[in-house]
User: Which sequence fits this backbone?
């Protein structure tokens, strides 16, 4: 699977709340940083979907840059996102930067950040 295909599979899993697919795409030691500066683990992320705390109702790719190397890669995604988080409806334009590593089972996210995206020019 190419890194582009892995990124698209991750987006589809987020939209569907597919915990099994997310589990398969996140490295066991994956760490993320949210827009508020909070840091979360793979298990924290999976639990937010599993419990229903986070439900992404729309994740629409606006732009995507993929840099694939032999053993690692980076994706930078800007997306319009709508979700229900802890019972609150949220809507934002977000920028995701993900560091991917190639493993025997394919591409895995090792680190990720998400932040508000700048307004389109």
Assistant:
């Amino acid at each position: 699977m190419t890194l582009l295909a892995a990124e698209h599979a991750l987006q589809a899993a987020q939209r569907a709340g597919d915990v099994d697919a997310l589990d398969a795409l996140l490295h066991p030691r994956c760490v993320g940083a949210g827009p508020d500066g909070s840091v979360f683990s793979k298990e924290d992320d999976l639990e937010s979907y599993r419990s229903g705390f986070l439900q992404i109702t729309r994740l629409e790719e606006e732009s995507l840059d993929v840099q694939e190397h032999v053993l690692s890669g980076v994706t930078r995604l800007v997306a319009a996102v709508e979700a229900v988080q802890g019972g609150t409806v949220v809507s934002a334009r977000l920028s995701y930067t993900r560091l991917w590593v190639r493993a025997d089972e394919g591409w895995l996210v090792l680190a990720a950040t998400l932040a508000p995206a700048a307004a389109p020019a």
